[in-house]
Design a protein that fits this description.
Blueprint (H helix, E strand, L loop, with lengths): L6 H10 L7 E4 L3 H12 L5 E4 L3 E2 L21 E2 L2 H9 L5 E4 L3 E2 L5 E2 L2 E3 L4 E4 L6 H7 L2 E5 L25 H4 L7 E6 L3 E5 L6 E6 L5 H6 L12 E2 L5 H11 L9
Parallel strand pairs: 1-2, 1-5, 5-10, 10-11, 13-14
Antiparallel strand pairs: 3-4, 6-7, 8-9, 11-12, 12-13
Helix pairs in contact: 1-2, 2-7
Length: 256
């Protein structure tokens, strides 16, 4: 009998598999934190989790509700602060950052500030927080978001956090470290990456039971779609057991 799971569980499990043992990852709360906790409990026990508010390498017993939650420091190796975290990113010591956003374009640029005119917006969001620093200075940026045409747009309304900006060489020309940038985008439909030459978003795998036309319909620009697109491995029994029983037993995230 096939395992039953929802799309949030699919996204978290898929994202967790990219976090290798021994690497460092800067996360916020919610689904990115769940993915990092799952990775730590599954295959990457030495994954170092960092929080914007200063928690370094905690082994969290439960899901924190904010980046300043005391659980983000539990059994950690250091209780630092925001300045220390951002300078750690600037020194090139953070491998991965997890971000979300209201809009993302084909080069992986993210808008988490405003929709519409900046001074008379249709919708105003919280803004960057530490997102720009993470996207600028961490080696690889992972993004988790719902896959809809209103989010995947040709050009973001406001550039909050840089992806590949306008294409090859643009990050470096802007003064950002070479060989950094967006890495994977995990949505409720698929996993996407970026073409090495053009830096344009490309489809890498589709989740089980998702049709390619659905991905196209929900993307507001031309994705690079290879001749063969693999299927994302569904959550395993072991992943779901840990995710539901240890990472998020109260279903704060996976129950959404």
């Amino acid at each position: 009998m096939a395992l039953q799971y929802n799309m949030m569980e699919m996204m978290i499990c898929a994202a967790s598999r990219y976090l290798e043992d021994g690497k460092t990852v800067a996360v916020g709360t919610g689904a990115p934190c769940a993915a990092a906790m799952l990775a730590q409990k599954m295959n990457s026990p030495s994954l170092v989790i960092l929080f914007e508010a200063g928690g370094v390498a905690p082994t969290m017993p439960q899901m924190p509700i904010s980046v300043g939650d005391s659980r983000t420091f539990f059994r950690g190796i250091m209780a630092a602060g925001m300045c220390e975290m951002m300078t750690t990113c600037s020194r090139g010591l953070v491998d991965y950052a997890f971000l979300g956003g209201a809009e993302i374009d084909k080069y992986g640029n993210i808008n988490s500030t405003v929709i519409g005119d900046y001074h008379k917006p249709k919708v105003r969001f919280p803004g960057s927080g530490g997102a720009n620093d993470f996207a600028s200075m961490c080696w690889r940026t992972l993004i988790m978001t719902v896959h809809t045409k209103s989010r995947f747009v040709e050009k973001v309304s406001f550039l909050t956090s840089p992806g590949y900006l306008t294409g090859p060489g643009a990050r470096e020309a802007a003064g950002l470290p070479p060989n950094t940038g967006p890495y994977k985008i995990i949505t409720d439909l698929a996993v996407l990456g970026f073409d090495d030459e053009s830096k344009i978003m490309k489809l890498e795998s589709m989740h089980p039971r998702v049709e390619i036309n659905k991905v196209k319909e929900e993307t507001g620009f031309d994705l690079i779609i290879p001749d063969f697109v693999q299927t994302t491995s569904p959550p395993s029994h072991a992943e779901l057991k840990i995710l539901r029983g240890e990472v998020d037993p109260l279903r704060l995230v996976i129950g959404r």
